[in-house]
Records
---
Amino acid sequence: MRHIKLAILAVMLLFSMDSFLAASPYVAGYRVGLDGYDVPTISTDEYWSASLFADLMPTSRFSPSVHVGFLLPPYPFEEAAYATAGASIPLAYWLGHPLRSLFRRDSAYAPVFGVQALFDLGHMRLGGGSANLQPLRFDFGDKQVGILSIQLVYDTVADQWGWGLRIFEISHYLW
Amino acid sequence: MRRLRCTMILLLFISLSLSAGHLGLSIGTFGNGSSGLFGTGTQVQGGLVFGFAPRWETELFVITAATADPFSRTIGGVGISYAVVSPVYTQKEVPSYGNTSVGFGFMGDISDLSSYGPFLRVTPVAVGGPQFKLRERAVTFGTYYDVPNKSFTLFWNVFMLDFFISRSS
């Protein structure tokens, strides 16, 4: 009898932990994207962006987010790779947006503004910084998709301004 | 040259005449080998997708340079794809959520036809479909034969989204 009571207690404890986890908001995940630049010391080849991100206020729709990762060229031994670190914040969160009928899942229009630092891993120096605006970004709860975001880039090596595009970006929450 | 233009117009006409099935808008990335259609930089691809048989669809598309010199070159094309795993355009059964497709087509430089030719392509991962409103195509890759320059080029669409906006039934 005692064993049965213990087993029931253990199962109840597991269920209570499960409901606790289910009620928790997503906090962090991974992000991938495809970038192109018109900046003096950054190659004009396409770049792959891969990073880990975390929300600082996970329960808020306007949570600031921080990320660290890499900006990788398609031909690793020909072009410079960069380490990246940055932060971003949603500018709006619109559930009734006009494009919602295009998506099977519930979605929200959630444009984002962010800043990012680029560290040149080939020369071990600061390569530049950028301000990014994602005007076409949609939030699906556990996933966010953005296309054609604009980047204003300051090249610290050439001391010049340039620009870039993030052709697409997918953020996927894991935790 | 005139015959080529007529052929392209004819292919476009055939594609449009097949639009009795599902209609979708597609947008995505395009990349190619450094000696290919665009050289360096990034490109975007947009177009229309029509399903005209359970496993067959045709696609009209335009590819243009995004960075570093936007719209410096624009490629147009038409392609036909076959869904390998299961029918995509069906009213009688729930189609497979994941699929694979193979296809072929023709594309060329719209402005001066300095480059044109046939292509073959494979899409190993296509998730979604008309019944799901949206489809994500990933890691499409193919090869293009440039007829005037007598050269082969590898190309790829890392990610494409198809938004299905109408159905035939």
---
Amino acid sequence: MSTTNAHAGQSHEHGHGHDDHHGPARGLTRWIFTTNHKDIGTLYLVFALVMLFVGGAMAMIIRLELFQPGLQFVNPDFFNQMTTMHALIMIFGMIMPAFVGFANWMIPMMIGAPDMALPRLNNWSFWILPFAGTILLSTLFMPGGGPAGGWTLYPPLVLQAGNSFPFTIFAVHLLGMSSILGSINIIVTIMNMRAPGMTLLKMPLFVWTWLITAYLLIAAMPVLAGGVTMLLTDQFFGTTFFQAAGGGDPVLFQHIFWFFGHPEVYIIILPAFGIVSQIIPTFSRKPLFGYAAMVYATASIGFLSFIVWAHHMFTVGMPLAGEMFFMLSTMLIAIPTAVKVFNWTATMWRGSLSFETPMLFSLAFLFLFTIGGFSGLMLAIAPADFQYHDTYFVVAHFHYVLVPGALFAAIAGAYFWLPKWTGHMYDERLGKIHFWLSAISVNVTFFPQHFLGLAGMPRRIPDYATQFADWNMISSIGSFGFGLSQLMFAYIVVKTIRGGRKATAEVWDRPEGLEWTVPSPAPYHTFDEAPAVK
Amino acid sequence: MHRVASNARRRLRPGALLTSLPATLSALPAQAAWELNMTQGVTSTAQEAYDLHMLVLWICTIVGIGVFAVMIYAIVTFRKSKGAVPATFTHSTRAEVIWTVIPTLILVFLGYETAPALVRIDDTRNSEMTIKITGYQWKWQYEYVGSDYSFFSTLADASNAARQLGSGVDPETVDNYLLDVDNPLVVPAGVKIRYLITANDVLHSWWVPAFSVKRDAIPGYVNEGWFKVDKPGVYRGQCAELCGKDHGFMPIVVEALPKAEFEAWLAARKAPAATVAAN
């Protein structure tokens, strides 16, 4: 017994002394062939950051055109291409890959695993993305331009698209495939690679939220793939799944799409919940309040997300019973969501708070996601939704959930773990400036959109009646500020990678979790031997 | 709210924004600009939508003030820089039960208030007349079912000229820019009107905020709904479902006339229309 232990210790030292096959390869091949979860995590995060600016540029074009009534810069068809592509890029190219990047980097380190369970699959999951993204973006340069029927791809309009149509569908297939493979990897890793003693209910909440997210992805993504494949066969192979003239049903697509689309909303927000649940306890210097309740709340949100989809479709003319069911089931989601907000607040209660940049972004998340939650509850009320539906009120709602919600959580996570990834502290002063610029401009951008929607401005229009001019101008000014502020984020990240004050292993003030037990920057291989879990 | 005389007000220039903001805000009630809230409309459905909207808005506001107050109190009070020492508690069953039960009760109350309204909105029985609405890329067709009269309604010429890319026309100078049509739908006021709605090509959605009517026009489907305009007047709306490049340019104008005037209008319109159709 003792001999075995001594031997294990020796081989451990040996590994550190001679880094022969353990270190990263040199040059470009390191990134192309890598099976290392940290490298792949970095690739995902860099890809997401690039896509943030690609999708952001499209948002800037949208807000520029909407700065004043009248058409000044783009024609309506290009405007529709921008709204469609902005959504597809931001959802599938930016926020989802960003959270998969966090999962890759952090899940093995949080559960004490040496790597992801399926490293080669991991490499492939990532490398599908740049090709899918390129195919999607290339449609903008095709005759007839990119997809312009909205990211929801509703037929029959989507079938009027030109050359871009099959490429868009193919890109969505690839993006979905990447997500499914990534999810399989995450589930297998969490289920099989936890260090001894890391029971399910000891896992950090970020791991829990990702476990549930991965199941949602596996359940929802194939449904989308099926739906868009039916679009493809309708267009090219003479089927009429969604064409009334052939006995099909355009509304069927909407049901299929939102059966994917609503879980997708939680696929985006649950990892954000996870990140915030790591950060708030750290900077409150107090354990997460109601850990078990948080896990159960996440699971119930995951379940409910599959039975509320038609609240996106209150105006399609559902039977009364359907409207009633989807209205009431949607309202239920407010309960686990409220529990989460209360638990985060209770975590801060009688804590010892400090306000480094990750905490600032998490607090903004807490306030502004709650506002998005409120408008979500409002949208659930079907008789009022007949007024809200497809207006800027909806645009304001989902941007509150996605930007100061999901994106702020991702930014918070980046600041939180950058020192662990790079070994350098980011510039706290610049981080705080970035925070305040972002937090103010995001509200200037999106809060007035509530007013525009209530006053009657439909979404997805390139031009509007003059009574909407004032709030649109304010919103555009805010969006330019928000866009510029994110350039600062890119600068801070690059600056931190290049240098900066050395980070300690713990980085923060006695943080909880295995990732803080390894040096900063985290060695290329961590937990070759399983750590002890108390 | 879609006011009729929207061009009567002054638009802010970017440079003048900051200086004129207080003055504009103080003049809020007098202007259609800076509109903040949902219209109360001119139908019982719109009033119900408004009332429910205000109810849930107030609930959210009160809950929000409570929750945000606690968060702000925690942020201000329990600061490390003030020497706060962290407590070690990790849960409290009593608190967790309380803050699960209270939202549940609020939601039960909301459901109780909302469900009957949904039933009333869905009830198309006892309507006196039926109008068929058909969405096209990018115009609406209205048919008075049973009186064999129908017509198309498209964006008014003045708006259409001004909205072209680089037209050089200031939208402020166009009456009801983008909310004006050549042939408005004319309906009798005070009459329960059932509408049937469908589309000929892609999805559209017929939305008049003052009626709180928003119903998708779906090819191959005929949806139905109803409205009863309490007050004669001109009401404006827009297509609310993305339908292609000119989705933003197929407005809806409904003119509600007193019943006798409406009947006279319909009789007068039917006579020449029959001639046109014969040609």
